[in-house]
Amino acid sequence: MSTEAKPDEQGGNSGHDHDVVVTIAAPNNASRAFKVDLHDRVDKVAREAVRIFVRAHEMEQMECSLVLIVDGTASTLDDAARLEEAGVRKHSRLALVPKQPKTDG
Fold it and tell me: CA–CA separation, 77 vs 67, rounded Å?
């Protein structure tokens, strides 16, 4: 998964037919475009997105789930599902949601 959408540099079919660009938002609503493989598991993509947002100082390290946002409605995705099975498509909008609510303490 990368944060940049790059055209196929070989100019032909490179076997990455399942690579698409989606937008993922962090819990603070910072968002980025990510190039993802639709065969990847939801939990893998969530972990990688968290890593990238943390490295960019846009969120704190935490375990997150992914939700798919369609027409303003968020649907939680099963961590074990493949993105394609979960309904993720080209240009889908996803959001990271903390698994454990932040508590003051």
Answer: 5
Structure tokens at 56: 């960019």
pTM listed for this prediction:
0.82
Chain segment 19-50, per-residue pLDDT in tens: 999 999 999 999 999 999 999 999 999 999 99
Tokens of 32: 């980025």
The structural architecture, per CATH, of the domain 19-98 is Roll (3.10)
Give strand pairing partners of 80.
none
Determine phi and psi for 65, rounding to 5 degrees.
Answer: -100, 165
Quote the tokens at residue 104: 């003051």
